[in-house]
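call fold(seq) -> tokens
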Amino acid sequence: MKESQVPLSEAVTAFHLEQRARGVSPHTERAQRADLEKLVAHAVGQQWEGWEVKPRVLRRFALELGERGLDPASQARILSTVRAFYRWLFETQRIQGNPASGLRNPKQPQRLPAFLTEEESSSLLDLPEATDFPTARLRCLLELLYASGLRVSELTGLDLQDLLQEQRTLRVLGKGRKERLVPFHAAAERCLEAYLAYRRAFLAEKHLPPSAALFLNQRGGRLTPTSVRTFLAQVIERASLRAKVSPHALRHSFATHLLGRGMDLRAIQELLGHASLSTTQRYTHLDLEQLARTYEGAHPRARRRPGEG
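ret:
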């Protein structure tokens, strides 16, 4: 290690040790190490004397990330680590000021989420009748995802007590542990009833103890989001739908189709559990022609002829 690199690396090592003591995940720790290695290499190459630098010096590092061809998401992750590191340097009084406080992420490209047409959604849900526990579970998972717009993690987090069958409603714990009620339709209710019957038979046949989880795996434990994504990806592939359509596309399709049929955007926001309306707006895919038709039908003056009061 170069002599100039020693004081730089000592602070980075201390930062990682404190992060580990705070309980960051191994994945996060590996990512932060890789990010700060890039910062240290840049600092050594530019002959920094320490971590006390001007904001423009850090901006030069940020520009270099883009010049190296890193995508905006990778740049943003690295700069997030740099900001966290500098905040720690400042809070532990290793530097007098925080030059990273104004460090901005590169502008992210606006990516519209993939979604299915109504015909594609119907094709995907047109599965053979359930004949056993796995097929009943798969039908139920698909129907509920499209009927309720839940995230996969929200669906697997449901307990039996969250199923309010009389009201045909799910009690969902979303992001930030915010609870919301989401209705589901009659077709999803029929799939649920069939699944619950197979679920009871499955537990009895395998001599497994009762479980609070609504969706179970083959060992009687709670089904994981990873397993659900695997199941649904296989179904999507078999259905020969458009490329790059993920299981999460059912949530996007749920929102898009409701909006296209006239549901208020704020009502859809509530169903999806979005804190911000701007997030919900990303799920809209109405083309200009459809928007124009909606406008013409909704605006009180749109159908008036010239000269009419």
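Residues 1-6 have pLDDT under 50 and may be disordered.
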